[in-house]
């Protein structure tokens, strides 16, 4: 008999969000340590084995460890799906199914990444999919206590959508910048061939757009007397943007030290989560 898990749906939703954010950081660690091809094939680690046994190295251990995290995500996804199913709510069931399907989809994309010798465009897509799962996890958390209602409309909501779109533009351009520079995941991994200097400038430009829209949204919410929760959400997003900008600025002028790049990737996950929360809070003020 399947145990009752519906009362644990809140903690499981948080576990989904946190575990997928951790995956972004561990995936970054694989790339930053040059361990992307520590397991040079997929789904096996080596032609003879699913584990690094017999061909052990630091790089293979790091890559294999990142692959093993998938089983943690699978366990969390199954428990979340069961708990959502037991609530009897169709909206939670649909989102839980999407979150669960994201895990094998990401595993396959990760495998393609390895089989293409860390093609930077596929690496970019792999990371963006994680960001999308993080955003969906935030929406899932919201829906547990607040089923969907008729959303608000108007120019402030339009500004929130513009902020959300600019955030995703920043995330995408950031992955392209990464694909043009060092930390490819392996010494022999290809780069996308684009100019890192020009791309970094483009990335800075879209960040300024993102910050400007966020500030505009904050002032609009204050001017219209919006709910405090929405204003706080935008304030948190702005704080994350400032921290991300500072890290990005320092890492650019210090030749991209691994620790700072790792924190920058964590910040990207926080941007995805927080901008989703902002959009939800502005569209659904009640």
Q: What fraction of the residues are assigned to beta strands by DSSP? A: under 5%
Query: Unreliable stretches, pLDDT < 50, 5 or more residues?
Result: none
- The arrangement of helices and strands along the chain is HHHHHHHH
Give the count of helical stretches: 8
State the end-to-end distance: 38 Å
Structural class: mainly alpha
Task: Please give the share of residues in helix.
Answer: over 70%
Largest sheet: number of strands, sense, barrel closure:
none
Number of domains: 2
Shape: flat
Your description of this structure?
The protein is mostly helical and 286 residues long. The protein has two domains: 1-148; 151-286. The protein is built from eight helices and no strands. It is flat, with a radius of gyration of 20 Å.
Characteristic terms for this protein:
2 domains, mainly alpha, 8 helices, single chain
Write the layout of secondary structure elements.
Elements: H1 9-32, H2 58-87, H3 90-115, H4 120-145, H5 155-180, H6 196-223, H7 228-253, H8 258-283
């Amino acid at each position: 008999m399947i145990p009752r898990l519906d009362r644990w749906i809140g903690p499981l939703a948080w576990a989904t969000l946190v575990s997928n954010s951790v995956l972004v950081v561990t995936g970054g660690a694989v790339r930053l340590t040059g361990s992307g091809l520590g397991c040079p094939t997929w789904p096996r680690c080596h032609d003879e084995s699913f584990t690094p046994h017999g061909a052990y190295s630091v790089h293979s251990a790091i890559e294999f460890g990142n692959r093993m995290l998938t089983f943690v995500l699978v366990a969390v996804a199954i428990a979340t799906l069961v708990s959502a199913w037991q609530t009897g709510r169709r909206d939670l069931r649909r989102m839980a199914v999407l979150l669960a399907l994201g895990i094998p989809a990401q595993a396959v994309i990760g495998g393609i990444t390895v089989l293409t010798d860390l093609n930077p465009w596929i690496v970019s897509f792999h990371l963006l999919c994680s960001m999308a799962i993080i955003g969906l996890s935030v929406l899932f958390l919201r829906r547990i206590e607040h089923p969907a209602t008729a959303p608000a409309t108007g120019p402030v909501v339009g500004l929130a959508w513009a902020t959300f779109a600019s955030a995703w533009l920043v995330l995408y351009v950031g992955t392209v910048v990464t694909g043009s520079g060092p930390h490819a995941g392996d010494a022999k991994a290809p780069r996308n061939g684009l100019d890192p200097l020009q791309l970094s400038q483009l990335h800075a430009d879209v960040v300024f757009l993102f910050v400007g829209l966020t500030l505009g949204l904050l002032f609009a919410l204050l001017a219209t007397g919006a709910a405090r929760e929405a204003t706080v959400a935008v304030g948190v997003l702005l704080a994350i943007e400032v921290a991300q900008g500072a890290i990005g600025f320092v890492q650019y002028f210090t030749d991209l030290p691994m620790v700072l790049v790792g924190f920058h990737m964590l910040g990207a996950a926080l941007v995805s989560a927080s901008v989703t929360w902002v959009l939800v809070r502005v569209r659904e003020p009640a």
